[in-house]
Amino acid sequence: MCGIFGYVGARSDAPGMVLHGLKQLEYRGYDSWGIAVPKDGKIVVEKRTGKIGQAETTLPASHVGLGHTRWATHGGVTDQNAHPHLDCTGRLAIIHNGIVQNHRELRRDLRDRGHTFVSETDTEVVAHLLEEECARLGDSAEDLIQAVMTTFRQLKGLNAIAALDVRSGCLAAAKNGSPMTLGWATDGMLLASDYAALLEHTRQMTFLDENQAALLTPDGIAVYDVATGQTITPEITEVSWSAEQADLQGFPDFMSKEIHEQPHVLRRIARERLDDARALAGLIREANETHLVGCGTAAHAAMAGQYLLARVAGRRAFYANGSEFGYLEKFLGPGALAIALSQSGETIDVIDSVRGAKRRGATLAAVTNVEGSTLYRLADHVVLLGAGPERCVLATKSFTAKLAVLLLTAYALDGRIEQAADLLEQAATEIEAMLSDWRRDYIRQIADQIYLREHMYIIGRGPSYPMALETALKIKEVSYVHAEGFAGGELKHGVIALIEPGSPCIALAPNDETRDDLLSGAMEVRARGATVIGIGPREDDAFDFHVPHADLSEASSIVQAIPGQLLGYYLALLRGHDPDKPRNLAKSVTVK
Ligand code: AGP
Fold this sequence. Notes:
Blueprint: E1 3-9, H1 14-25, E2 32-39, E3 42-49, E4 64-70, E5 85-86, E6 92-98, H2 103-112, H3 124-137, H4 141-153, E7 159-165, E8 170-176, E9 181-185, E10 188-192, E11 204-207, E12 212-217, E13 220-225, E14 231-232, E15 237-238, H5 254-260, H6 262-272, H7 274-286, E16 289-294, H8 297-313, E17 318-321, H9 322-325, E18 336-342, H10 348-359, E19 363-368, H11 374-378, E20 381-384, H12 397-413, H13 417-434, H14 438-450, E21 455-460, H15 464-479, E22 482-487, E23 504-508, H16 515-527, E24 531-535, E25 545-547, H17 556-574
Parallel strand pairs: 16-17, 16-18, 18-19, 19-20, 21-22, 21-23, 23-24, 24-25
Antiparallel strand pairs: 1-4, 1-10, 2-3, 2-4, 5-6, 6-7, 7-8, 8-12, 9-10, 9-11, 11-15, 12-13, 13-14
The structure holds 2-deoxy-2-amino glucitol-6-phosphate.
């Protein structure tokens, strides 16, 4: 949560660079934004509530700048609470991602020592603590980094901070838990919460590790161990993504762009991820128990993985929400395998729980989209999704990519991986067709019919149950319609009481053993006046609307995801919402 961007170097347009960097990171939080630069020995700040949109900065030219886009945790959405925050002297600007858990005590003590607070945030304590350390140490760049490390050691919780000091004209940062990447460019040094925002400047990255700090000067970056204050040789990685991949490429928004990238991503996984899937299958084969863990959409992929391993390879695997796994991992140990699924590789509930499992001796495999992310570096074995940057807050291509990797893995366990690769090729072709033929407009027409409804229901049985949950989440996240997904068999155990005349109900009806029972459920809700939207290879009397798709055996779930993504998208547009930045959300959840 929260986007951090900073630059120091030869270029004098730091304010504009930082603003552009923040726009790239806005999916991490868009309650407010702010930028700080030095001017005549003082820090000058520009900060506002709301999204950046087409805003231009009015700050003076500068060779150094620091910016932040906020997802509010402590203190309302106000200009005062927007970052950067300054110290009492106006010498230092601070930005922060995370939660300073001991901010109350620190604030009380700082107040007692005469500091004046202007915001309600937990973050502002960092500015005043740093003020004291810098006053104690001096004005050099080395003084700044030592002061930042001393300050950081006083903070409790999972945090990333960055500071701009007018005296040294440098940037300094420290992190523990929240992500921080450093970029080495030819005309300066950069820092950001994730490296997608650095790609147009460089592909040479240093991923700051837990309890590390960094000093950025125009000529280079020095990395330190926060505990000892000693320098560490920075590891520089050339990342594979390009800046172009992170652009809209002519689409009106990232959600539609990323929905349309799915055929390409699936083909790429079918051709380039076979060895990774075989290796993951090997880990599952060796393990005495396997746990699939994820949050949100990744949790639905984990649940789908449980069905795939059981149905394709006859292998028992457990699925858990990352935010709950921590309460269950106590019984894991050597011989157990935890497979963590996370697009960003930074979801703190997943990282914390699998880190616990790893401490107990379990093997950790990660299925993630971000090279160099915390999960990527924590895992014993990694499968990179290769889906390219996902900038829309809603996970679409990363979801079907996870299903594709799990499908290959299940078939590899059963010695039929080529069959799965072929199914993925077919799924890519079918999705390509669905995104360009009559079905896309038909789904839009359905949205036209139901967009004023405040409640919708999605039913699925067996492997379609996690798909029902995912379809509901997509509709909820982007259109703010209360959509509820549930196991088709649970209908008569209570939830059917919610059905009233005109209630939209999506029925996921693939050509498998779940179809008949699912259709009975669809008939039952129709009998109570629901409008039934059938998604599946074959038409049925239970349906008021039918979105057909090819029967692709166990890969049908991948195709089944698309109508829900499109319906959510069109409902959002019809209800006047921004599909890329839904209210109250952020792309990667790095605070508890
Ligand atoms: C999905 O559309 C949401 N953005 C959210 O549920 C997301 O899937 C969840 O926060 C997990 O993110 P991750 O895959 O980056 O770990």
